[in-house]
């Protein structure tokens, strides 16, 4: 199984972090390919930035069409997730959605730890779009920018444990999601300090991509995720128009 | 007041229809400018097509930045609405949202008449995103493609009246929205045959844009629609990167 | 267009405040008529007081029937709004509903600043009745009575800015509503100190009344806001029984 | 215990029906007093008619203040229920609310059989106001006016059984409410033909009034149902202003 | 009327407390029988403990089948309530559900005071299962174990008043439920110190059991609380298999 | 990894069906152990039957404690799922929950095909308990009992396709769940005839159990799924009391 993991941000350093965590968790039969957005911003925190990210992911998805068995969108809020599900013949997985659906099987109320204050509004809307708002205990966030992925445990470990404790005691969380790709390694390394089970988006995403590939039947022709009706289009890049084409 | 109305579809014929209805309803002090998406599809019915439309609207919004006092996105599902609200200093109005907020003041439960079956799932998600699902009586749809905007009353008038009757009697609607730009003229012309008040997106959008321009205070620096934090971006067209720039 | 604005409270001083703000914002073609409740209380804060207010508004609406093109109910919680929509042939606008539908087009989550603690429960129920509870970030309130409308900026300006800041930072509001008629002037005068856009009920109400008058089709005979079925009534004042009569 | 039962409609014939059912179900220690609205309409089906009914009930409640230990509002949609709870020192019960809270203890999803089509929208809003919409299986309604309370079983018995069967099989109801005062006798007389348990508003209301009187502690000074703050009022009838007075 | 009250906990001391409160509130015609779970835990606070309690209640219900006219389950979260409603021919009442449906008639938003922190999550899920989450103002809890039922007013009275005050002022509660069987006496004894009306589960349960017995029609054959379809069963105790048998 | 799959029904024939499907889908490293309820009913369709099933699953879980790395509850409505999550140190998976969380990643609105009419009410409550009611397009059901698992494709294939078509066209489903263990094989064999992707509970459950085992961190001490507080218990079987013990 070939799994294409796309970082909708332009930061190749974060792509490396994602890849490391993905390779650690993937089953032996999974062949991982990485891609980084060719356009967009360093770190998606808002709706507009997510639109840029979705566009960049779609370009990559179209460009490499036919070369992967599943696609994992590896950024907050899953930019382009529902959109690409309409046009691809393979499972499309979002790391936020995957983390939510995984966490939902470990506890009733889910707490989220996010990487910045600004991102929380956008993230809440994502949870709502997936119909999981009633399962959300709350979103708490780091209050300092990440200095360096390599030192994140030293820099943020204590505060993360403190946020987790509050999520459990004050918000009533039974399970936590560490919501940023840059936090991928952190989840594992501090897990034994935390009061409840914790999942992160990258490893959840890789595992759920494997599940969907294992289970999913052939692509079906109806429902609201069927291919868009054929119609005139203009002005699109070759990779985007490829996504609208019928075989 | 300069109102820029952007058709996120590539069809200039529909742009003309929108313009006619917009000019009919706008107050005398409103100067209307029209724009048509340079890329995308003939008619947006799905999430992926809406992503293309949002991107095309953003390109126009950036290109003409500083040349308008309000922006009206004139297609189903308001592609790019929340995204552009983050980056523009002027009111951004969506014709779906404007129609919903207008209709909500004419009756408690809102019925929507859509232009195709495929579009209904995407449209329902829009209503949900605006928090108005509890106000939605239901969505009914035409079952034949629109042959020609000029003959729409002859082609669909009877069926529209029938759909409206069912929306009221079977779904419990108190007010109706005719949800497609191509239906703009139709709403007015058949209004006297319908059992409840009816609004359409184009005229609602123009009127609400005038309200927001009249009322809105200067752009404020906080909340989740403040400008995205300044950060590195690459690979964006000049018009898109313009939207991320600070003055 | 003749717009009848009814203050459901008995306080003519507040009527004057409303009128000043209404005249400031209304388009040139709008002819404003004011009316003050002939019975009821000085300031509506509870459900029972709102029942008194609704009755007083209905009496005025019936008394002046045929003399206005739209009716604006100018008090918290829109007493009589849905009730009068059933019996009047013209648009009926509530300042709370109008403010909510306007604010909803400026941000995703709405914060409300109310004039007293007691009023907040009743106000929350109004937001719920309009189906907008999922859009409500929270309600905060002044903690001292308004001394004098003329000195409100001096008396409450600082605290209002503080409440607004908390609504944004702690509740996640993207847009604010200053919810009391007596605050009408205040919204505009402190807008430049606030962290997000702010609307008030009076100006929203006047603008939305203009929109509905511009758009609304003729009164329709079906749905749950059609005229009540003709039936025996007794003991009603002439103005109320007028509202039940068929032309 | 003195229970004042107020018919918010002006129809004394219906008052008699209510009284008969109330006397049948009340415990021996309950002394029942009946009252009929002095103003309003023959049968409340809409929001505006309910406003008239609420006003009439309030007038009676004030007029007889101090002469009853509990008040039962005996009409659809409980006109004046929340309002009067603020100003009376004794339990106030609504027959709709009482029926819902009783039915909720007999099955998970509640079906309602209403007396006319027009009434269903208003009734649905009541269920929503009580937070019970998720428990509502649906509302079905008789399609012919009630000819005569005395012949209701012959006139409507068969159709009622048919509606009940559909409410269970098509809507998934576990329990039914026969929602109109005029149906009070009917519920009991056809109960053995129905597929699920059935309750009616009058008997539920009488029983719940007894429960609240038995349980309720002395009137408490806080919360949103505390007495409205003392303030100026004008133009109110003696019975209404009595309700605002402090002892 | 014979009312069987089952304590799903194994603590006979609490059974005595429940009995005392039940006898105090029951009407003269009610004959109360008490039973205590033969297996399970000292005090149910979690979902698993509730499963044990539900099983124990079912065993008693089957063992004494035919010997009672109504069954009251007297513990937090009503273990076995919905389950037993399917198999018994008499009303089954839960003290939590009964308290909620009673409290709902005394105020719009309900605050709950629970006996321990751990129990609050499970209790919230119960409120949700009854569809009453929108009515829940919040759950607050004692922070020390109950030393002795006989000294509960001295031990916890002050803190209870403090929790109640916060539930009203900070959470917006209009009415309170004291949620544990051991608190039964307390509610009454401190009622005059509390800011809003207060109900407890035992007395609510006894009263609602009387209401249902008075009102409920004969057991009906359809809906999701009809008897389970007849089918093979094995390995059940005589009392449990009795519950599945048809007469 | 040792996966214990428990059939909460007493039917060993269905256990065989579950096992076949589980072995087909499990990864090579998964060692599957099967168990069948020692007490209970042939096929769980109601709440009371599920209580019996939950008890039987708990007995097996306690009896084999320490002998499995994950537990899969293989029946409708996941009897005992939340309860066992509190007391086991390993992941506990329910086939309904697993199917929902898997399906949620294949489409926005989920249609369920159930095995009998009676089961649908109980199943809807499960979906609600998982917070997924807003994602539920509807539940449709077979109308004839399953004659023989071996001939299910011949017996029900055509009707299943018909139900699926209606779930998509009339209910708006994007993805389907075939909800009964006896249907496990069917899903795969008719998948190519269906209009949208389809998942079944057994294979979803096995895959999700693998995900949770791969991801889950060590058992954490807080939140509402922590071990119940230590307290006195009596009358429990050795296997149940084992579940309450601390190591």
UniProtKB/TrEMBL annotation, chains A, B, C, D, E, F:
Family recorded in the similarity comment: Belongs to the HyuE racemase family.
> Which terms in the Gene Ontology molecular function aspect does this entry carry?
amino-acid racemase activity; hydantoin racemase activity
Protein name as annotated = Hydantoin racemase
Q: Which UniProt keywords apply?
A: Isomerase
- Species this chain originates from: Paraburkholderia fynbosensis
Uppermost EC category: isomerase
EC numbers, comma separated = 5.1.99.5
Highest rank taxon of the organism: Bacteria
Protein's gene: hyuE_1
List, alphabetically, the Gene3D superfamilies matched. 3.40.50.12500
């Amino acid at each position: 199984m070939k799994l294409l993991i796309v970082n909708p941000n332009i930061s190749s350093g974060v792509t490396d972090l994602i890849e490391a965590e993905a390779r650690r968790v993937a089953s032996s039969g999974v062949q991982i390919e990485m891609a980084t957005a060719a356009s967009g911003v360093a770190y998606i925190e808002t709706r507009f930035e997510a639109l840029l990210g979705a566009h960049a992911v779609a370009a990559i998805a179209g460009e490499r069409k036919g070369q992967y068995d599943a696609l994992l969108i590896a950024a907050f809020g899953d930019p382009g997730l529902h959109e690409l599900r309409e046009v691809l013949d393979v499972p499309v997985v979002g790391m936020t959605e995957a983390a939510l659906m995984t966490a939902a099987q470990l506890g009733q109320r889910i707490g989220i730890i996010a990487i910045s204050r600004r991102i929380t509004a956008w993230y809440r809307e994502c949870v709502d779009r997936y119909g999981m708002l009633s399962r959300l205990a709350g979103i708490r966030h780091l209050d300092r920018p990440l200095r360096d992925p390599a030192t994140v445990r030293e820099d943020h470990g204590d505060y993360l444990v403190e946020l987790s404790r509050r999520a459990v005691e004050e918000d009533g969380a039974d399970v936590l999601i560490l919501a940023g790709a840059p936090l991928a390694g952190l989840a594992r390394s501090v897990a034994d300090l935390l009061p409840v089970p914790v999942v992160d988006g990258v490893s959840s995403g890789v595992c759920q991509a494997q599940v969907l590939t294992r289970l999913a039947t052939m692509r079906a022709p109806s429902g609201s995720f069927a291919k868009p009706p054929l119609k005139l289009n203009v002005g699109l890049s070759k990779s985007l128009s490829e996504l609208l084409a019928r075989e």
